[in-house]
Amino acid sequence: MRIALASDAWAPQTNGVVTTLKATADTLMAQGYEVRVISPQGLRSIACPSYPEIRLAVAPGAHVARQLQALRPHAIHVATEGPVGLAVRGYCRAHGLPFTTSYHTRYPEYLRARWPLPLAASYAWLRHFHGAAARTFVSSASLESQLAQRGFAHLHRWRRGVDLRRFRNLAPHPEPAGLPRPIIACVGRLAVEKNLHAFLGLPLPGSKVMIGDGPQRAALARRYPQAFFTGYRFGDELASLLAGADVLAFPSLTDTFGLVMIEALACGVPVAAFPVPGPIDVIEQGVTGVLHTDLAIAITSALGLDRAVCARRAAAFSWEAATAQFLAGLAPIPRALRATLAVRRSSAMIAPVVARRQTSDAGDV
Predict the structure, then answer these.
(1) 268-310, pLDDT tens digit by residue?
(2) Residues 27, 132, 67, 32: what is their CA dihedral angle, to the nearest 10 degrees?
């Protein structure tokens, strides 16, 4: 089975969307599927406003057509609503091809955090985008409920996973040099929509460790000089930093899931968060974390939870189980329609399939 996966978010970006898509592609290929990622890589692009590290493809329509015609996929999934996602959606609509989409990012809330754009207008556009799909994948029950209330239809659950071979409970857990305990880690993109002031402004004992980077890093470092900013960390280094923490603070109010929460749990680190969608779908109150409207209370209470229990609960979040949900939601393209995509294959048309996994720090955005 050949699967086309279209995404405006791809390497070298670091975020939960990229982590999710790479892990899913890796798992699919390990199971014998052929996966081709159609992304902005290699295309002319411009910087995303307020996010220069994110590149948006310029006029990717011809590239998209060549990729789909060369692959002749059995299923097409559009992961993002940017230029590449729009081009694939447009191609499918023009050729009568069924496709699926996924809702990774609360763009209406993200946009409103920067500019005075009404939520109703943003959600109307997103309903239009996803309304053409056979199904729209969502990461949690609470997100499914919220989108259904806003008029989204044909929603399908696609949960997230964690690399349990890398993220694991280390005993004894690492001791970050020179940092007094308790160590409270916060992982993700340093940006306005992550509500980081709600954590960094708390008068807490011990050490605050910010793992990640983003447009707000310089301003946050100036305002909160007592916090330790590590920049991006990946792979085993990220896992070691997480395992050395006493609690993970997750102050975001807008994430659709929060992948880093299950990465922390797999390392035996309890989570402190607000009782909002994302955390309420992941955290067992008083078992793997504490949810409270006062984040300081949540952090203090979470410090006493059992690390071994956190790690055991995280084992339920495997990428194999998540990928099975992904496969179950795909919309197969009938053979007759696939035949209309046939073109003479040439090496110039065929892009390499994704072949390696990168585990990142940020939750789904």
Answers:
(1) 999 999 999 999 999 999 999 999 999 999 999 999 999 999 9
(2) 20
- Tell me how far CA of residue 342 lies from CA of 76, 77, 339, in angstroms: 15, 19, 5
Dihedral sign computed on CA atoms, order 334, 130, 282, 243: positive
Query: What are the structural domains, with CATH classification, of the chain?
Result: 2-161+318-339 (3.40.50.2000), 183-314 (3.40.50.2000)
pLDDT in tens, 311-325: 999 999 999 999 999
Torsion of CA 115, 118, 121, 122, to 10 degrees: 50
**DSSP code for 185:** E
Q: Is 255 helix (H, G, I), strand (E, B) or coil?
A: coil
CB count, 10 Å around CB of 201? Answer: 13
Judge whether 272 and 298 are in contact, CB under 8 Å.
yes
Please, is 175 exposed, middle or buried when counting C-beta atoms within 10 Å of its C-beta (0-12, 13-18, 19+)? exposed
Instruction: State pTM to two decimals.
Output: 0.88
Three-class SS of residue 57? strand
Calculate the alpha carbon distances from 104 to 12, 131, 184, 365 in Å. 18, 15, 26, 6
The residue to which tokens 């006029």 are assigned: 59
Residue corresponding to tokens 């949690």? 140
Residue 129, beta-bridge partner list: none
Name the DSSP class of 246. S
Q: Which of 243, 272, 234 is nearest to 168 (CA)?
A: 243
Nearest to 270 by CA among 240, 241, 291, 296: 291
For residue 229, count other CB atoms closer than 10 A to its CB: 17
* Cα R_g (the chain), whole angstroms: 21
Residues in the chain: 365
Which single residue is written with the structure tokens 């410090």? 303
DSSP codes joined into one string, 304-350: TS-HHHHHHHHTT--HHHHHHHHHHH--PPPHHHHHTT-----TTT-
* Spatial distance between the Cα atoms of 48 and 56, rounded to a whole number of angstroms: 6
